[in-house]
Amino acid sequence: MKITKWMLALTLLLAGGSGISFAQITGNPGVDAGWIEEQNSAASGVDLLGSGIFSANIYATAFTLAVGSPLVGISSVGSSSWSVGDTIVGVGGLFTATGNTSLTYNGNGSPTTRFVVKYGTSTANFSVGNASLDNGGNGAVLLGTYDDAGADVFTPSTPGLSLTVDAPTEYTGGIQVGITSGNFGAVMTAWNGTQLAGFESFMDLTILDAQFPSANVALGDEFVLDLQQSTSTSLYQDSLGTLPSAVVVPEPTTLTLLTAAMMLPLGARWARSLRTFRKG
Asked: Residue 132, Cβ neighbours under 10 Å: how many?
């Protein structure tokens, strides 16, 4: 009986462990594990500033980087890289069927839609009409995608991770200081043909804290998702969200549960065989 219980516990432990891999990153936070849906970017009290030309369901996540994730190994500052055990925070969006300006890739090497995340601090003062980085508090960080053509601009024909972002900055001492010495962010996009359908933007909080101790971004802090039409200074939307207060542990996947169910009978047979051997 003790052996059978031990095998059951071991099986469930393995099942749970293998289900917390966050290995699937598709650009669609509605299907990937560990993302928490918040509100729509155009909702009252969420849409803080801008022309209201986007409608996307906002998602957020925070997790411990695990073996198997495509984020592992991203080169960052000096010899450091995104490593297993790092704390990763993320903001994602899933565009709705209506309420958006054109999300179609314009085909000339430049993105039609940009997204920028303004990670606030515990002293953030984001509110309607008040969504600038300085209102995010001292130590807030801005992380956005490129606004011009380049090797790391996301397109429908080059799906996958975009490993660099455009001039991330930290708000400290009343000014914005460029963080340009390494990759602190990565972006994955999802497409429906030539239409941008969703995105997932990640930041390695462990490396940020180690390299820039003055940055005060933490779990549970507010952020602003800035959706922008190309490089326009008038066609944009700033929407409010909040990072999870603790790392997210997703439920075990269906495959994991199936594997666990298959292992249990094997464990029982192994236990019976062991008892027979002891009696002999």
From this structure: 16
116 Cβ partners below 8 Å, 6+ apart?
142, 143, 144, 145, 225, 226, 228
Higher pLDDT, 156 or 181: 156
C-alpha dihedral, 64 to 72 to 190 to 146, nearest 10°:
110
CB atoms within 10 A of CB 152: 16
| pLDDT tens-place string over residues 168-203 | 788 987 888 887 666 788 888 888 888 888 999 999
190, amino acid identity? A
Question: Which among 165, 160, 133, 162 has a CA at the least distance from the CA of 48?
Answer: 133
The C-alpha angle with vertex 118 and arms to 112 and 123, in degrees rounded to 5, equals 165
Tell me the pLDDT tens digit for each residue of 213-267. 889 999 999 999 999 877 777 888 999 999 999 998 755 443 343 344 444 454 5
* Number of neighbouring beta carbons within 10 Å of residue 202: 26
Overall size of the chain counted in residues: 280
Count the Cβ atoms, other than its own, within 10 Å of residue 52: 13
Q: 54: which 2 tokens?
A: 């986007």
Handedness of CA 261, 262, 263, 265 (dihedral sign): positive
Q: What pTM was computed for the model? A: 0.79
- Grouping H, G, I as helix, E, B as strand and the rest as coil, residue 172 is strand
Stretch among 13-22, 43-52, 67-76 having the lowest mean pLDDT:
13-22
Q: Put residue 65 in one of left, alpha, beta given phi > 0 → left and psi -120 to 50 → alpha.
A: beta
The distance between the two most distant Cα atoms of the chain, rounded to a whole number of Å, is 83
Residue 272 above 60 pLDDT? no
Q: How far apart are the first and last CA of the chain?
A: 18
Q: How far apart are alpha carbons 274 and 280 in whole angstroms?
A: 10
What span, in angstroms and rounded, lies between the C-alpha atoms of 121 and 133?
A: 10
